[in-house]
Specification:
The complex is a heterodimer.
Chain A (H helix, E strand, L loop, with lengths): L2 E5 L3 H13 L3 E5 L2 H10 L4 E5 L7 H9 L9 E5 L4 H10 L3 E4 L4 H12 L1
Parallel strand pairs in A: 1-2, 1-3, 3-4, 4-5
Chain B lengths: L2 H30 L4 H20 L3 H18 L7 H22 L4 H20 L33 E8 L10 H9 L3 E7 L17 E7 L4 H7 L7 E8 L1 H13 L15 H6 L3 H7 L14 H4 L8 H25 L7 H25 L1 E3 L1 H4 L2 H12 L3 E6 L4 E3 H22 L3 H6 L6 E10 L2 E8 L6 H10 L11 H6 L22 H10 L3 E7 L3 E9 L4 E9 L2 E6 L3 E6 L5 E5 L2 E6 L2 E7 H4 L12 E7 L2 E7 L1 E9 L3 H4 L6 E6 L5 E5 L1 H7 L14
Parallel strand pairs in B: 6-8, 13-22, 17-19
Antiparallel strand pairs in B: 1-3, 1-4, 2-3, 5-7, 8-9, 9-11, 10-11, 12-13, 12-20, 14-18, 15-16, 16-17, 18-19, 21-22
Helix pairs in contact in B: 1-2, 1-4, 2-3, 3-4, 3-5, 4-5, 12-13, 15-16, 16-20
The chains are: A alpha/beta, B alpha+beta.
Chain lengths: 120, 711
């Protein structure tokens, strides 16, 4: 069981992620944008971050960049949950410090499998 | 589909409809002038969210359609294309098409929506095709196939006990800095086939020089099985920049020699053949166990795990089903009744302890009232919820009818019950249509009259005496009294010799089947307009009035109760029964004198009230109140509904009070003439009269409508 920070500005997407992850016994913290996520990550231990890219206030790329600067999150896996599968988009995410990406649409079972693998 | 998933889908659909509103409003603002960057981002994100969600929920037509839209929006956002009127128009059509597609997805019948979306999609694609080099568009295909799906089988080695792959994996020292762990990838690799691995320890420095945050390991291996190159590369997709990966396809023979080679180069270190169980990485890492352990630094943790409720802190809003709120509201209603019951009985208590009891009751009353207001507020939404749909309507109609209209709102934060708001939408749309179609003149006509070419349509909302008032005013041509009169006579709505005053004349437009537009237009419909508007408002417990002056403008005033759950009522007594009449419907109450009554005409008695004859409804007879000693009615309460006035003959007027409306239909059955029931402080049930139904039912006065009492 891991503590997962799920960031998405769409409530249904957050619900969907929560739905998939809680089945795997994970504890899910939800945030609706980068700013909220950063605040949560500062006061709450997190084992994995799963974030949308396009969000108001602070997007997923900026969030990963900011999170990577927090000492306690330096080695934590951060996955982008995104509809963008272009190489350029992936490169931007990698440059910011993202561990990897899961492209929407995602299948709840596959999401869970991928996350368990990432968590080892 | 899972019930839980279905609920999430429902949330997605609601959210999409909100996103569509955001899109639409943003596009309309775009039309007014160049938008700031953030505004375009908001529009883009709205489309993007719909696309992502739709794809996740398997609504492929929606996802594919939105993808095209998003591509265009991305060009606007990045400044590669200007948002001119033509582009905005196409995008607005796309919003409509998308709305239909989503609706179709709910009803599992998307045929019609798909058919109507196709030309819009072509229009979008046509716009996209105009500028060369637009293929720099953002995202990849939005199709249902995720990247997690295997991408082809190009290099799969053939053969039965075929070959496999020789591989070399040399992670860069910084691979852990981005949260990637080579062990995870090797484990996943072991899941693809039979994996033989050998760790390459040559790069591990001496203990003093070792940086535990860096990876100094490499691996060589052989993977046996029918595995495609794409399958392997997918596993390394996240780390392509942080490692060297060499792959070599092997046939069966080459594989055997590669395995032998791997074995012989092994120096007694672990090379466990890791099959689908996937222990390859652990096995391989074993010999360097200590280094590996320290090299994967456990992230430092803050002391205690925070409670799960932290999640709630990130948002100030939550979605609660209206059912839950209604249940709560109902309970609070019961509480109010209990409180007033206690008060009634408390009054009869002995003097001892009475003051303490009274204080307690007063406090209870204050708290229950406050609780009730708070709970009711949960159901309240700002009227902007409904107003926000109108700019698009005005935009479209102005173009269609050649009008220039400035739409102005005020008081859009005024809150109303959700149900009231929803049912208000259609009447408002109709009134706005009418204002553009029949009220505000064409620019040339206005200028000829000395008016500004741009007409003003002003919607305002405010509170007044416990009601919400919504006013729709235009500075157009006003109602044409002569034409209304002529039409009313032609339709036989009034007698030829009747000369109604202005107010009465204007009231005629709410009469069923009335329409003054000489040519029926597809904008305002076929005379099924104002009467339906009026009926809808009345069914919400409100009323609508019109003021108009020729050439200056028209103003409709809608008066609505704050909520549908509570009613301001006048208690009346009919025989020994108590009934409730909605206060809003009451015009006046007069002493009933026989002298004013006229002999029964065809449809019953009428009473002369000032210069008007008002039909009289004997409630005792209509409601079949059988009394041992019948008592003549003392008073006549003039009530109005739908522009129709009737007089209710009652025995007495009692107090005015707010009553909690209970559905009679849920608890008993529908009774004509009765809108609902409530429970009075003394525990008695009182029926709430449906004034509108009573005025239409008075034609059959001999048939009793309701049982005398239910209590």
């Amino acid at each position: 069981m891991a503590r997962i920070l799920a960031v998405d500005d769409s409530p249904s997407m957050r619900q969907m992620v929560w739905f998939a992850l809680q089945r795997g016994g994970h504890e899910v913290f939800q945030a609706e944008d980068g700013v909220a996520a950063l605040g949560l990550a500062r006061q709450q231990p997190v084992d994995l971050v799963l974030s949308d890219v396009h969000m108001p206030r602070m997007d997923g790329i900026a969030l990963v960049e900011a999170l990577r600067r927090l000492p306690e999150l330096r080695y934590v896996p951060m996955l982008m949950l995104t509809t963008e599968s272009s190489a350029e988009a992936k490169q931007r995410a990698k440059a910011a410090g993202a561990t990897g990406w899961i492209v929407k649409p995602f299948d709840p079972e596959r999401l869970l499998t991928t996350i368990s693998q990432v968590l080892g | 589909m899972d019930e839980e998933l279905r609920q999430i889908l429902q949330i997605f659909l609601e959210e999409s409809s909100e996103n569509l509103d955001v899109l639409e409003q943003g596009l309309l603002r775009l039309e007014q002038g160049p938008a700031a960057g953030e505004e375009l981002n908001v529009i883009f994100r709205a489309a993007h969210s719909i696309k992502g969600g739709a794809a996740t929920f398997g609504l492929d037509p929606v996802a594919e359609f939105t993808h095209v839209m998003e591509t265009l929006l991305d060009q606007l956002r990045s400044g590669r294309r200007q948002a001119d009127a033509a582009v905005v128009r196409v995008l607005l059509q796309a919003v409509d098409a998308l709305r239909a597609l989503l609706a179709g997805a709910v009803e599992d019948d998307a045929t019609a929506a798909l058919a109507s979306a196709a030309p819009v999609r072509e229009a979008l694609e046509a716009v996209l095709a105009v500028v060369p080099g637009t293929d720099a568009a953002p995202a990849g295909p939005a199709g249902p196939a995720g990247p997690q799906a295997t991408v082809g089988d190009e290099a799969a080695p053939a053969g039965e006990d075929a070959g496999g792959w020789r591989l070399q994996f040399l992670p860069h020292p910084d691979i852990w800095q981005q949260g990637n762990d080579p062990a995870r990838i090797l484990r996943a690799l072991g899941g693809l086939g039979e994996l033989h691995l050998r760790a390459d320890l040559t790069q591990v420095p001496s203990l003093e020089a070792l940086d535990p945050a860096q990876c100094h390991l490499g691996w060589q291996g052989v993977l046996r099985g029918e595995v495609s190159q794409a399958q392997i590369e997918e596993l390394f997709d996240w780390v392509t920049e942080q490692c060297e990966l060499r792959l070599e396809a092997l046939d069966a023979t080459a594989l055997r020699s590669a395995l032998a080679e791997l074995d012989s180069s092994a120096t007694g270190e672990a090379m466990a053949p890791a099959a689908a169980t996937g222990n390859a990485a652990d096995g391989a890492a074993d010999p360097v166990g200590p280094a590996h352990e320290t090299a994967t630094p456990p992230a430092p943790r803050a002391a205690a795990a925070a409670p799960a409720s932290v999640a709630g802190r990130s948002s100030n809003f939550m979605r609660v089903s209206t059912e839950k709120i209604d249940a709560l509201l109902n309970l609070v209603g019961e509480l109010v009744i209990t409180q007033s019951m206690l008060q009634t009985f408390g009054g009869a208590l002995e003097e001892d302890g009475k003051s303490g009891m009274r204080d307690g009751l007063l406090q209870l009353e204050r708290h229950t009232r406050e609780l009730q207001e708070r709970v009711m507020q949960i159901r309240m939404l700002p009227i902007s919820f409904t107003f926000n749909r109108l700019p698009r309507l005005v935009h479209d109609l102005s173009a269609k009818l050649d009008r220039q209209v400035e739409l102005r709102f005020s008081g859009e934060h005024t809150e109303l019950d959700k149900t009231v708001l929803e049912q208000l939408a259609d009447p408002l749309v109709h009134l706005v249509r009418n204002a553009l179609d029949h009220g505000i003149e064409a620019p040339a006509v206005r200028e000829a009259k000395g008016k500004a070419p741009t007409g003003l349509l002003h919607l305002s909302a405010f509170h007044e005496a416990g009601n919400v008032i919504i006013r729709i005013s235009d500075d157009g041509n006003g109602l044409d009294g002569e034409r209304i009169l002529a039409k009313a006579r032609e339709r036989g709505l009034i007698e030829p010799q009747e000369t109604p005053d202005e107010t009465q004349l204007h009231q005629l437009i709410f009469h069923p089947g009335f329409s003054t537009a000489e040519q029926v237009s597809d904008v305002s419909g076929r005379g099924v307009g104002m009467d339906v508007v009026s009926r809808n408002i009345v069914s919400l417990g409100g009323r609508i009035e019109v003021q108009s002056s020729p050439g200056v403008g028209t103003s409709f005033t809608i008066r609505l109760p704050l909520t549908l759950a509570i009613l301001d009522g006048q208690l009346i007594r009919v025989g020994s029964q108590i009934y409730v009449v909605p206060l809003l419907a009451i015009l006046e109450t007069i002493q009933l004198r026989d002298a004013q009554l006229r002999a029964p005409v065809q449809n019953g008695e009428v009473c002369r009230v000032r210069d008007e004859y008002v039909p009289v409804v004997r409630l005792a007879r209509l409601l079949d109140c059988r009394e041992a000693q019948p008592e003549p009615a003392q008073m006549l309460m003039i009530v109005e509904s739908d522009g129709q006035r009737i007089g209710l003959a009652v025995n007495d007027l009692l107090s005015q009070q707010q009553v909690v409306i209970k559905s009679l239909q849920h608890n008993y059955r529908h009774v004509p003439g009765i809108a609902g029931a409530t429970i009075l402080g003394d525990g008695r049930v009182a029926l709430i009269l449906d004034v509108q139904a009573l005025s239409s039912l008075r034609c059959q006065p001999t048939r009793p409508l309701a049982p005398a009492a239910l209590a």
